[in-house]
Design goal:
- It holds the Pfam family BD-FAE.
- Keywords: Hydrolase.
- Strand 3 (75-81), helix 4 (98-102) and strand 4 form a beta-alpha-beta unit.
- The radius of gyration is 17 Å and the shape is globular.
- The longest helix is centred in the first third of the chain and has 19 residues, at 28-46.
- It is built from ten helices and eight strands.
- The protein has helices spanning 13-20, 22-26, 28-46, 98-102, 121-138, 156-165, 201-204, 208-213, 237-250, 275-285, and strands at residues 51-56, 64-68, 75-81, 107-111, 144-154, 182-186, 228-234, 253-261.
- With 287 residues, it is α/β, with parallel strands linked by helices.
- The protein has a six-stranded mixed sheet with strand order 1-2-4-3-5-6, with helices on both faces. A two-stranded parallel sheet has the order 7-8.
- It has one domain: Alpha/Beta hydrolase fold, catalytic domain (Rossmann fold, 3-Layer(aba) Sandwich), CATH 3.40.50.
C-alpha cells in the first residue's frame, strides 16, 4: 500500500471538501426534496407487496431488515444498503426499487444499521455483513434464494457494498467465499483515506490507518464477483474519481449515468426502463 497514493491527495482540504460535499453541491432545497422522494417512492413501491418487514437480523445490535417482493418459490434477492454518510437515512427510505424488482421475479432486502457516531464504522460494517449472513441462513424461510444474492448501495452504502464484496470476512461467519454473487455500488467510497481530511470525519473519527483498513480498494483480495460500478455524470468529483479507480482495480463494468447527480441516480432503480435498472436486472439474470 502506497501511503501517498490517495484519491485527491494533491488537493487542499478546502478542495477535498468540495469534492466530497455533495449535499452542498446539490443545495439544501433540492437535497430536501430528494430526501422526501426517497421516503415517498419507497412507501409507494412496497404498498401491497408480499414480504416480511421488521425482522431482527443481528441479535447483538437488535438491528432489523425488511423483506419485500417474495413469491411462490425462492427468488434471487437484491440487498440494498442505504447511504447518508453513515449517519442518516434508514431502510424506510430505501425500498424504491422493490416494486419494480417484484414484478420481474426478484425480492428486495433493505437492512438498517446503527448510525454513526453511535456506532463505529467497524461496527456498521459488521452489521451489514451480518445482514448478508442472515439472508444466506434464513432466506429460504422468507422466499429468498441464498445462492443468488446481489448487493448494492448508494454513497456510504456503496462503501458498505464494497465491504461485502471483498474477501476475508466470510469464513468467520460460516459463509461461502462467494456468498455475494454480484454487486452494484452507486457513487461508492472505496478508499476512505481522503475522508480523514473532510467534515465527514467529525462523526467517523478515523485516522489514516483505520481508514485504510476499512477501504474496499485496499483490502480487496484476489476474488472478483461480477460488478457494475455506477456513478452519476454530475456526481461529486471525489465520487467519480473513486469509482474510476475502483473499477480499474476490480474490473467489471464502469457505468456513468448521464444527466444524473449523486442523489437522484439511485432513484432510477424504480423505473424498469432506466439504464441502471436494466444493468441490475442483467446482473441478476446472469446468476
Amino acid at each position: 500500500m502506497d501511503e501517498r497514493d490517495w484519491p485527491g491527495r494533491e488537493l487542499s482540504d478546502e478542495e477535498l471538501d468540495v469534492a466530497y460535499n455533495v449535499r452542498r453541491k446539490a443545495g439544501e432545497e433540492l437535497f430536501g426534496q430528494l430526501m422526501v422522494r426517497y421516503r415517498a417512492e419507497s412507501d409507494k413501491a412496497v404498498e401491497g407487496l408480499p414480504g416480511a418487514p421488521g425482522l431482527v437480523y443481528d441479535e447483538a445490535s437488535g438491528e432489523r431488515l425488511d423483506v419485500w417482493g417474495t413469491g411462490d418459490a425462492p427468488r434471487p434477492v437484491f440487498v440494498f444498503v442505504h447511504g447518508g454518510y453513515w449517519k442518516a437515512l434508514s431502510r424506510a427510505d430505501s425500498a424504491f426499487m422493490a416494486g419494480m424488482l417484484h414484478e420481474r421475479g426478484v425480492a428486495t432486502v433493505v437492512p438498517d444499521y446503527t448510525l454513526a457516531p453511535e456506532a463505529t464504522l467497524e461496527e456498521i460494517i459488521r452489521q451489514v455483513r451480518a445482514s448478508i449472513a442472515w439472508v444466506w441462513r434464513h432466506g429460504r424461510e422468507h422466499g429468498l434464494d441464498p445462492d443468488r444474492i446481489v448487493v448494492g448501495g448508494s454513497s456510504a452504502g456503496g462503501h458498505l457494498t464494497g465491504m461485502t464484496m471483498v474477501e476475508g470476512w466470510q469464513e468467520a461467519l460460516g459463509l461461502p467465499a462467494d456468498v455475494v454473487k454480484a454487486a452494484m455500488p452507486f457513487s461508492g467510497l472505496f478508499d476512505l483515506r481522503p475522508l480523514t481530511r473532510v467534515y465527514v470525519n467529525e462523526w467517523l473519527g478515523l485516522d489514516v490507518a483505520r481508514a485504510a483498513g476499512l477501504s474496499p480498494a485496499l483490502v480487496a483480495g484476489a476474488r472478483r464477483c461480477p460488478a457494475v460500478i455506477t456513478v452519476a455524470e454530475h456526481d461529486g468529483t471525489g465520487f467519480v474519481e473513486q469509482s474510476r479507480r475502483f473499477h480499474a482495480q476490480w474490473g467489471g463494468e464502469l457505468l456513468t449515468v448521464p444527466e444524473r447527480d449523486h442523489f437522484d441516480v439511485v432513484l432510477d432503480l424504480g423505473d424498469p426502463e432506466s439504464l441502471v435498472s436494466r444493468r441490475l436486472l442483467a446482473l441478476i439474470q446472469a446468476l
